[in-house]
Amino acid sequence: MKKILLASSSPRRTMLLNQLGIEHEIWIPEVNERVKLAESPEDLVVSLAVDKALDVAHRAGDGLVVGADTVVVSGGQIFGKPENESHALAMLTRMQGTVHQVYSGVAVVDAKTREIKAGFRKVDVVMMPCKEEWLRAYIATGEPMDKAGAYSIQGIGAMMIKEIHGDFYAVMGLPLVLTVELLSQFGVDSPLFFL
């Protein structure tokens, strides 16, 4: 089996690959993740996932590289990771009591051939209204500061989420079914599929 490289420093993404039984190495991509205003959310997450995977592929030279990226869209505005606490508060305040979308892109790149397979998932998320004091207390935990949209669905932030329509793992940052589909196009299957 080809070695798998995860182009991410996210502990959530490595945990999800481990959950699938896919052994992998972690490589941190050196890519600017700033939102490119000209791109649609789906194009943005796919292009950033590809950029991350290609960056690691160029450095590694061998193996299959998995890159991923996630953004949140509320009222037509794209939210990446918050720049500071006031930015996190602005994001969370805007999403209170509304439906927003989470877009997660995944790319798999063969480091030798540079062949690319990529896709994305879109999920509708309903956020409950919360008092500003609660939001400020949540931000003070530090949890929102490295998350797209300034919340963590698998952490304390789950208390704000009323409904999810779509792939839960896409909201976490790595849509598992899509990831498995892309890897399988390179002949890789999770060992757990054979249990």
Would you give an account of this structure?
It is a single chain. This protein has helices at 11-19, 41-60, 85-95, 132-140, 168-172, 176-184; strands at residues 4-7, 25-27, 64-74, 77-79, 99-110, 116-127, 161-165. The chain is of the alpha/beta class and 195 residues long. It has a single domain, classed as Maf protein, CATH 3.90.950. Strand 1 (4-7), helix 1 (11-19) and strand 2 form a beta-alpha-beta unit. The longest helix is centred in the N-terminal third of the chain and has 20 residues, at 41-60.
How many H/I helical runs?
A: 6
CATH architecture: Alpha-Beta Complex
Q: What's the CATH topology label?
A: Maf protein
Over all CA atoms, what is the radius of gyration? 17 Å
Total domain count: 1
* Straight-line N-to-C gap: 17 Å
Number of strands: 7
Indicate the overall shape. elongated
Helix content: 25-40%
Q: Could you list some keywords that capture this structure?
A:
32% helix, Maf protein, seven-stranded mixed β-sheet, alpha/beta, 7 strands, 195 residues, single chain
Summary?
32% of the residues lie in helices and 26% in strands.
Helices and strands in order:
Layout (H helix, E strand, L loop, with lengths): L3 E4 L3 H9 L5 E3 L13 H20 L3 E11 L2 E3 L5 H11 L3 E12 L5 E12 L4 H9 L20 E5 L2 H5 L3 H9 L11
Parallel strand pairs: 1-2, 1-3
Antiparallel strand pairs: 3-4, 3-5, 5-6, 6-7
Helix pairs in contact: 3-4
